[in-house]
Design brief:
single chain; alpha+beta; Helix Hairpins; D-amino Acid Aminotransferase, Chain A, domain 1; OB fold (Dihydrolipoamide Acetyltransferase, E2P); 24 strands; binds nicotinamide-adenine-dinucleotide; binds zinc ion
Length: 695
C-alpha cells in the first residue's frame, strides 16, 4: 500500500475509534492498540508530511462538543498528553527535556493519572462561575450546574492573595464504589450499564438533569492552576497552594530530580494503584518549574514538558476449560474461552471460576473466530495466556504447549449449526467469521435489530436499553422494531423479569414502574420526529451505514422513491456502488421487510427528507482550492466547507504546492501556517474570505 493510502486509512480508522470513544463511550479496541495505531500514523506523517490529512488525529485533541450544552471557548487551550508504555521512550523524553533546557538543572513532579474526564473551572473574585469539559480542546461544553454537585469542589475560595480571575483544572471521576452502585441500579432498571468508571464519569457529567448527576456521587482531583499573572513559580508550589485553599489535590504526588526516581515511582504504583478508590491508568510526569515549562513549550496537541506513562495490560496463564459460542446481533458466531486458575484443574469442566486479573475475576475471553482458534493452535485443557486491559473484553494471547505432556488436551470442534436457532452456519468467501443466515427468526439477531434501531445515530430512543429490550422480547411484546409503536401504558406497567448476571451469579429483578413506563413511551413518541436519514439507517439494511443512509436520503428524498428505485438508478447515486445497490434491492424484496416499513410509515415515522443537496449560491470560487484550519467566529467547520462548495470552490485534504488558499482561523497549528508560507500559498483570514464571497 502506498504511504498516502496508508495515512488515509489510519486517519479514518482513528477517527472512527475516537468517535466511538468520545461520543458513544465505547472502546472497540484497547487504549494500547489505539495508541500504537496513533504512533504508526505519526511516524508515517513525519516521513511524508505532504500526505498528512487536514484533520489528522495526531494534530488535535480527540474529543468534541455536544449540541446539548452551551459551547464555550477555553481561555487557555485544553490539550492532551503525549504518552508512552515503555521505559526507553521515557528516557528519550528525559533526553529531550535535558536538551530543551540547555543543561539547566530540573525536577519532575510525578502524579497518578486518574481515569476520568478533564474539567476546567473558572473562579471570579473567589467564586466558582463556570465548569467546562475539554471538548475539542478549544471549546468545551459548559456544565457548571453539574460540576457544582462535586462535594469536594469549593464554590467559594477565601484567600487575600488570590488573583481576581483564575482557572483550575482537574480530572472528574466516578469513585469505584459509586460506579458499582450505579451499575447495579442500571441493571435493575434494565438500562445499559457503563463499561468502566471513565465512561460512567463522562456520561454522568453530561446529564441534563443535575439532580441525577448529584445522586451519582462524582468527584474530582485538581492538578493545575492557571492565571494571567505569574502566581506560582512551580507546579509543586501550585499543588501546595491549591491544597491550602481547600481544593481536592490527590496526596500521591512526589517531587523527584532524575528519571531513575521517576521509574521508581512508576514501579511503586504499578500494584499499589489497584488499592485506590478510583481507576487510574498510569502516571503523569511534569517538569516542575513554570519557567522551564515555558521554555519547552507545546506541540499542536500536547505540552513538551509533560508525558504520561501508561501501564500495560496484565497478562497471566490460565486453563481453557470450555469453549462456548455466542451469536451476535448480526448473526456472527464468536467462540468464547471459559477459564479458570492453574490451581483449579481438578474442578468439574462446567465449573467456571475464572482467573484473577487486573483487580477483577475474568471468566471468559473472546477467541474472535475460527481462524483465530487455528492461529493460536489451542485445545481444550490447554494452558493459555489471558490479557485484560481496562474495559476491553479479555483476550487470549498465546498458549504454553509444553504443558500438554503433563496435562492432556482435546481438539476444539467448531459447531456446524447455530447454537441459538439450529440453522446451518455459513461463511462468506474471504471473510473469517461464520454466521447464522437465519436473520428473520434467530433470537439474538432479532434483538440485535431492535438494539440497532434505537441507537443514538438511528432512532435515538434513550429510554430503552438492552435489558428492557430483552424483557420486551422475551415476553413476546416486541419482536420487530415496528412493535415498539404498538406499546401502551397498560401493556407495559408492572412487567417483570429476573435477569441472571452470569459474571456474579446474582439474580436481579427488572420491573417497569410508572416513571419507567412514561419515559419509555415518551422516548418512542419522540423518535417519530427523527429525520428520514436516521430512519433509513435504523432499518439496518446491510451496507447502509449512517453516511450511506444520509446520501440516499438526500438523493431519493423518500422511502417511496428508494423502494421503487431500480439497480441502475441506485448505482447512479454518487458513491453508491453495486454491493450497496444489490443489498437495498434485496432488502425491499423480502415480504417481512416490506411489511415492517409499511407499519413504521403508519406509525408516523419520518419517511420523507427535507434535506437539500448543497444549493449552488454562486461560482465566485470556481476553480479555487481551499484548506481550512483552526476555529472561526461565524462558521462551524462543516458550514464553512458547505459554503465553499456552494460557491464553486473545492476543499483539499492537505497543504501542498497545488493549493490556492489556506483559510486560517484561530488556534491553528503553527506548522501548517509555516508550510503554507514556504510553498507560497495565500493565507486568508475569515474576514478576507467573507470579502471574497461578496466580490
Ligand atoms: N480505545 C479506544 O478506542 C480509544 C479511542 C480514543 C482514545 N483512546 C484513549 O484515550 C487517549 C486519548 O485521550 P486523551 O487525549 O484524554 O489523553 P490521555 O487520557 O491519555 O491523557 C490526557 C488526559 O489525562 C488526564 N489526566 C489524568 N490525570 C492527570 C494528571 N495528574 N495530570 C494531568 N492530566 C491528567 C487529563 O484529563 C488529560 O486531559 C488515547 O491515547 C487512548 O489511550 C482510546
Ligand atoms: Zn441462529
Amino acid at each position: 500500500m502506498s504511504p498516502e493510502l496508508q495515512i488515509q486509512e489510519l486517519t479514518e480508522k482513528l477517527h472512527h475509534y475516537n468517535d466511538r470513544y468520545y461520543q458513544d463511550s465505547v472502546s472497540e479496541i484497547s487504549d494500547y492498540e489505539f495508541d500504537q495505531l496513533l504512533k504508526e500514523l505519526k511516524t508515517l506523517e513525519d516521513q511524508y508530511p505532504e500526505f498528512r490529512q487536514l484533520d489528522s488525529p495526531t494534530q488535535r485533541v480527540g474529543g468534541t462538543i455536544t449540541k446539548t450544552f452551551n459551547a464555550v471557548y477555553h481561555r487557555y487551550p485544553m490539550l492532551s498528553l503525549d504518552n508512552t508504555y515503555n521505559e526507553q521512550e521515557l528516557r528519550s523524553f528525559d533526553e529531550r527535556v535535558r536538551k530543551g533546557l540547555d543543561g539547566e538543572a530540573y525536577e519532575y513532579i510525578c502524579e497518578l493519572k486518574f481515569d476520568g474526564i478533564s474539567l476546567s473551572f473558572t473562579y471570579e473574585n473567589g467564586s466558582l462561575v463556570r465548569g467546562v469539559t475539554r471538548g475539542d480542546g478549544t471549546r468545551g461544553d459548559e456544565i457548571t450546574n453539574n460540576v457544582k454537585t462535586i462535594r469536594t469542589l469549593p464554590l467559594r475560595v477565601k484567600s487575600e492573595k488570590l488573583p481576581p480571575l483564575f482557572e483550575i483544572r482537574g480530572e472528574g471521576f466516578m469513585p469505584l464504589s459509586s460506579f458499582q452502585k450505579l451499575n447495579e441500579e442500571m441493571e435493575t432498571l434494565g438500562d445499559n450499564q457503563y463499561a468502566n468508571p471513565r465512561n460512567a464519569a463522562s456520561g454522568s457529567f453530561k446529564l441534563q438533569d443535575s439532580a441525577e448527576t448529584a445522586r451519582r456521587g462524582l468527584d474530582c482531583y485538581i492538578y493545575s492552576f492557571l492565571s494571567d499573572q505569574d502566581f506560582f513559580k512551580s507546579h509543586e508550589e501550585s499543588l501546595l497552594g491549591l491544597k491550602s485553599w481547600g481544593f481536592n489535590v490527590s496526596p500521591g504526588w512526589r517531587k523527584v530530580d532524575n528519571i531513575d526516581d521517576v521509574l521508581a515511582y512508576i514501579h511503586e504504583w504499578e500494584e499499589k494503584r489497584m488499592t485506590l478508590p478510583l481507576a487510574t491508568d498510569g502516571i503523569v510526569i511534569k517538569v516542575n518549574s513554570f519557567e522551564q515549562q515555558r521554555e519547552l513549550g507545546f506541540t499542536a496537541k500536547s505540552p513538551r514538558w509533560a508525558i504520561s506513562f501508561k501501564y500495560k495490560a496484565e497478562n497471566k496463564p490460565a486453563i481453557l476449560r470450555l469453549v462456548t459460542y455466542q451469536v451476535g446481533r448480526t448473526g456472527t458466531i464468536t467462540p468464547v474461552a471459559n477459564l479458570c486458575d492453574l490451581t483449579e484443574r481438578a474442578l468439574p469442566l462446567n465449573k467456571i471460576v475464572g482467573v484473577h486479573l487486573s483487580g477483577t475475576r475474568v471468566k471468559r475471553a473472546t477467541l474472535h473466530n475460527a481462524n483465530e482458534l487455528e492461529r493460536l493452535g489451542i485445545q481444550l485443557g490447554d494452558t493459555v495466556f489471558v490479557e485484560k486491559s481496562g474495559e476491553i473484553i479479555p483476550k487470549i494471547t498465546g498458549v504454553d504447549v509444553t504443558q500438554r505432556e503433563q496435562y492432556p488436551t482435546e481438539p476444539i470442534i467448531f459447531p456446524t449449526h447455530c447454537p441459538e436457532c439450529g440453522s446451518k452456519l455459513e461463511r462468506n468467501e474471504g471473510e473469517v467469521a461464520f454466521f447464522c443466515p437465519n436473520d428473520s427468526h434467530c433470537p439474538p439477531q432479532l434483538k440485535g435489530r431492535i438494539e440497532h434501531f434505537i441507537h443514538r445515530k438511528a432512532m435515538n430512543i434513550e429510554s430503552l436499553g438492552e435489558g428492557k429490550i430483552e424483557l420486551l422480547f422475551d415476553l413476546d411484546l416486541v419482536r420487530t422494531p415496528a412493535d415498539l409503536y404498538d406499546l401502551t401504558y397498560d401493556k407495559l406497567l408492572g412487567l417483570e423479569k429476573n435477569i441472571l448476571n452470569e459474571e456474579t451469579g446474582k439474580v436481579k429483578k427488572i420491573s417497569f414502574r410508572e416513571k419507567t413506563v412514561e419515559n419509555i413511551l415518551a422516548g418512542i413518541e419522540l423518535s417519530k420526529t427523527v429525520p428520514f436519514k436516521n430512519v433509513l439507517f435504523a432499518l439496518g439494511i446491510r451496507f447502509v451505514g449512517a453516511t450511506v443512509a444520509e446520501k440516499l436520503a438526500v438523493y431519493f428524498k423518500s422511502i417511496q422513491n428508494l423502494r421503487s428505485a431500480t439497480y441502475d438508478q441506485l448505482v447512479a447515486v454518487p458513491e453508491i456502488g453495486g454491493r450497496i445497490a444489490l443489498s437495498i434491492e434485496s432488502y425491499f424484496s423480502v415480504p417481512e421487510n416490506k411489511q415492517l416499513v409499511e407499519r413504521l410509515e403508519k406509525a408516523g415515522l419520518q419517511m420523507e427528507s427535507d434535506e437539500k443537496p448543497i444549493e449552488i449560491e454562486s461560482n465566485v470560487l470556481e476553480g479555487k482550492t481551499f484548506v481550512i484550519s483552526g476555529t472561526f467566529e461565524n462558521f462551524e467547520r462543516d458550514d464553512l466547507k458547505d459554503k465553499i462548495e456552494a460557491n464553486g470552490g473545492r476543499i483539499l485534504s492537505g497543504v501542498s504546492g497545488k493549493l490556492n488558499y489556506l483559510l486560517a482561523g484561530a488556534n491553528m497549528g503553527p506548522s501548517k501556517l509555516e508550510k503554507a508560507r514556504k510553498l507560497g500559498v495565500t493565507i486568508l483570514s475569515e474576514e478576507e474570505f467573507l470579502a471574497m464571497l461578496n466580490d
